[in-house]
Amino acid sequence: MEYLFVYGSLRPGWRRTQTIPGAATMRRTLRLRARHLGPATLQGTLVDLGRYPGLILSDDSRHRVCGDLYRLSDTALLSHLDAYEGCAPGDPLPHEYRRVQTQAQPEQGPAVRVWVYEYLPGRRKVPLIPGGDWLQSQ
């Protein structure tokens, strides 16, 4: 099984998909080709990049990011997600994100290994999102 953790524009509760090109289409693709398993958290911090957040993974268990967990029915979906996140092999460098694996904790049940898109910090200063929940910061 492959799992995906989303924390920004692909979360089911986020309603402003029109502000990000491709967000509505990618969310619809997730609904059709993946199963939403509910809320989950993982270790990290969120930064505010304007129209969307960025995740920076952390080893500090005090820093938690809220998101949603999906089980992917088709691993080919990952290449579509890479293109949406701008980190597909043909996308121009430097990429803003990279797809990595880490552990996420669902509200119920054991931790699972997930794919997540990690923000690759550049030189610009970006503010943290307090509480690690993009939906609550909007």
Task: Give structural attributes.
138 residues; alpha+beta; Hypothetical upf0131 protein ytfp; 6-stranded antiparallel sheet; 17% helix; 38% strand; globular
Describe the structure.
By secondary structure, the protein is an alpha+beta fold. The chain has a single domain (2-137), classed as Hypothetical upf0131 protein ytfp, CATH 3.10.490. It is built from 3 helices and 6 strands, in the order βαβββαββα. The chain has helices at 23-33, 77-85, 134-137; strands spanning 2-6, 34-48, 53-57, 64-72, 97-106, 112-119. Strands 1, 2, 3, 4, 5 and 6 form a 6-stranded antiparallel beta sheet that branches. Strand 2 and strand 3 (53-57) form a beta hairpin. The N and C termini lie far apart (32 Å).
A few lines on this structure:
This protein has helices at residues 23-33, 77-85, 134-137, and strands at 2-6, 34-48, 53-57, 64-72, 97-106, 112-119. It has 138 residues and is of the alpha+beta class.
Total count of domains: 1
Shape verdict = globular
Please give the share of residues in helix.
Answer: 10-25%
Outline the biggest β-sheet.
6 strands, antiparallel
| Total DSSP E strands | 6
